Amino acid sequence: MISIINKNIRKSVKVITFFIISIIPLTLMAQQTPQEWLETIDRNLNPPQYESYRKLINIEPDGSKKEFVLFTLKQGKDNVVALFLSPASEKGRATLRVGENMWLYIPNVGRPLRITSLQSVTGGVFNNSDILRVDYQAEYDALSIKETEEKNPSGKKLLQLDLKAKTGAVAYDKLEMAIDPDLQSPLKIRAIASSGMLIKTIYFKNIKDFGEGIKRPSVVETDSPLYKGYQSIIIFAKIKPRTLAPEVFTTDYMNRIESLR
Q1: What are phi and psi of 93, to 5 degrees?
Q2: Does residue 48 surpass a pLDDT of 60?
Q3: 239: Cα within 13 Å, side-chain hemisphere
Q4: What is the distance between the alpha carbons of residues 30 and 164, in angstroms, rounded to a whole number?
Q5: Res. 13: pLDDT tops 60
Q6: 3-state secondary structure of 33
Q7: Do residues 172 and 162 lie in contact, with contact meaning Cβ atoms separated by under 8 Å?
Q8: pTM of the entire predicted model
Q9: How far apart are CA 211 and CA 1, in angstroms?
Q10: pLDDT tens digits for 143-154?
Q11: Domain positions in the chain
Q12: 207: closest CA among 45, 53, 95?
């Protein structure tokens, strides 16, 4: 009789253990709301304040390339300024973003010129909103998060975080962000217009440890069904935390960004 009871207890323990293990992934996912997931993604992609060196490559359908090197500074959720270091024809130009307001500074042209998020100062698939990327939470509300059928290399299901633009001034109305739960980083983002049309897909690749607690994708690629055969790539060569004065992110300072290198 006692042996039967012990056998039943062991069976019950196994069932309970299996149940607990099976719900752990869902429990971990439920510990973070969609908005908390978005905040985690932002912090893993960007320190609150930083400087970086990036190469932007535009690839034409015939395989020809045009490359740009940018020195970039960011402060807070939505202040970004980038200085063009090359090619020679672009050297000295600077772009500034404060919230949804953007400007282009061209040496010897006088005051900075207003530009829009959907334009591209480099002429590729990446628009100004992509190049001067602010925190996603500055532009989007997180609506929902769910598991998908896609899996990461360890076999865990990817998560999909759905975002909705806070205003009509944002470049994309919706974002579908595929997240690796192990890396807590996006692998892919589908940018969608209010009509439901896919505008572009952005891919995050090659996780790299940049030091000082920064570990993020070092390569960001994009393509678009609207520009078939064209591709744009951003490669992060260096990124590190840096404390910056608020005046750096003003139009009056755009001609002095070189002095901060």
Answers
A1: -70, 150
A2: yes
A3: 25
A4: 20
A5: no
A6: coil
A7: no
A8: 0.86
A9: 62
A10: 999 999 999 989
A11: 1-31, 34-260
A12: 45
User: Taking the CB of residue 97, how many other CB atoms lie within 10 A of it?
Assistant: 23
Cα Rg of the chain (Å, integer): 22
Residue 257 sits at the vertex; the CA angle it makes with 205 and 130, to the nearest 5 degrees, is 30
Place of tokens 């005046």: 247
Give the span between the Cα atoms of 252 and 7, in whole angstroms: 79
**Hey, what are 92's tokens?**
């000295």
Helix (H) or strand (E) run with residue 169 in it: none
User: Residue 141: beta bridge partners?
Assistant: 164
DSSP per-residue string spanning 99-155: TTEEEEE-TTS-SPEEE-TTS-TT-SSS-HHHHT---HHHHEEEEEEEEEEEE-TTS
Architecture of domain 34-260: Clam (2.50)
Q: How far apart are CA 116 and CA 184, in angstroms?
A: 31
Note the pLDDT tens digit of each residue in 95-125: 999 999 999 999 988 789 999 999 999 999 9
Q: Tally the residues of the chain.
A: 261
3-state secondary structure of 93: coil
Which structure tokens are listed for 90? Answer: 């672009």
